[in-house]
């Protein structure tokens, strides 16, 4: 309601009052819109934290395709190039895992460099788990802040340059931990960032065990 009324004030009275009034209304509109987004993000974080979903076999390749469909406009606007290795099937929540990959892709798009972003999704088997990596060539981060970026409301870049509430990577961590995995980040030696997360591998079927 607050957002609706301050937006109405902006539409009706912009340019009809003095310059200070226009500036104050603009501040109010911006604050209300940021609060709306913060509330939506907090609700999402709360759902991830509190709701236990049934687990089933999930094709991570399909979750990647769904995430890219959801980000179609952002991918096109940034001219991003996304490549991926064949991804495994894991046991989990398809909705949560789609949100995980979508958030990591969106993070790479947001923190891109001056040129179109190149994002690669890789995979490696590490014992009893899969390690998935999302690598980009964006602005990167200070490696001393690697752990801090997964803490809710923590931002490594100023809000004046990159919008957001600092919840996205905290949500990623909650999703990964709910699935019995780990998530961490490292600086890409070629420039940019690499986000890794692990998922327990499905046990081999009897046929696979004998092969």
| Helix proportion range | 40-55%
Q: Which CATH class of the largest domain?
A: Alpha Beta
CATH superfamily of the largest domain: Histidine kinase-like ATPase, C-terminal domain
What strand line-up does the widest sheet have?
2-4-5-7-6
Main beta sheet: strand number and arrangement? 5 strands, mixed
CATH topology of the largest domain: Heat Shock Protein 90
Q: Tell me the overall shape.
A: elongated
Order of helices and strands: HHEHHEEHEEHEEH
Please give the domain count: 2
What does this structure look like?
This protein has 211 residues and is an alpha+beta fold. Helix 2 (19-50) packs parallel to helix 6 (168-178). The protein contains seven helices and seven strands, in the order ααβααββαββαββα. The strands form two sheets. It has a five-stranded mixed beta sheet. It has a two-stranded antiparallel ribbon with strand order 1-3. It has two domains: 2-50; 56-206, Histidine kinase-like ATPase, C-terminal domain (Heat Shock Protein 90). The chain has helices at 2-13, 19-50, 60-70, 72-78, 94-110, 168-178, 206-210; strands spanning 56-59, 81-84, 89-92, 118-126, 129-136, 183-187, 193-200. It is elongated. The chain is 45% helix and 20% strand.
Q: What are the SSEs and their pairings?
A:
Elements lengths: L1 H12 L5 H32 L5 E4 H11 L1 H7 L2 E4 L4 E4 L1 H17 L7 E9 L2 E8 L31 H11 L4 E5 L5 E8 L5 H5 L1
Parallel strand pairs: 2-4
Antiparallel strand pairs: 1-3, 4-5, 5-7, 6-7
């Amino acid at each position: 309601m607050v957002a609706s009324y301050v937006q109405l004030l902006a539409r009706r009275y912009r340019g009809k009052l003095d310059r200070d009034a226009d500036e104050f209304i603009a501040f109010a509109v911006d604050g209300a819109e940021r609060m709306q987004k913060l509330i939506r993000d907090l609700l999402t974080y709360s759902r991830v934290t509190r709701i236990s979903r049934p687990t089933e076999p999930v094709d991570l390749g399909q979750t990647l395709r769904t995430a890219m469909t959801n980000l179609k406009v952002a991918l096109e606007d940034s001219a991003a190039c996304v490549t991926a290795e064949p991804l495994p099937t894991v046991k989990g929540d398809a909705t949560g895992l789609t949100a995980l990959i979508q958030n990591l892709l969106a993070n790479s798009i947001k923190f891109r460099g001056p040129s179109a972003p190149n994002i690669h999704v890789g995979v490696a088997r590490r014992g009893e788990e899969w390690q998935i990596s999302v690598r980009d060539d964006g602005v990167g981060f200070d490696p001393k802040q690697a752990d801090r970026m997964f803490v809710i409301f923590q931002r490594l870049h100023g809000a004046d340059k990159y919008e957001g509430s600092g919840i996205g990577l905290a949500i990623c961590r909650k999703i990964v931990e709910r699935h019995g995995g780990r998530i961490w980040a490292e600086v890409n030696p070629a420039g940019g960032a690499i986000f890794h997360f692990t998922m327990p591998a499905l046990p081999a079927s009897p046929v696979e065990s004998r092969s």
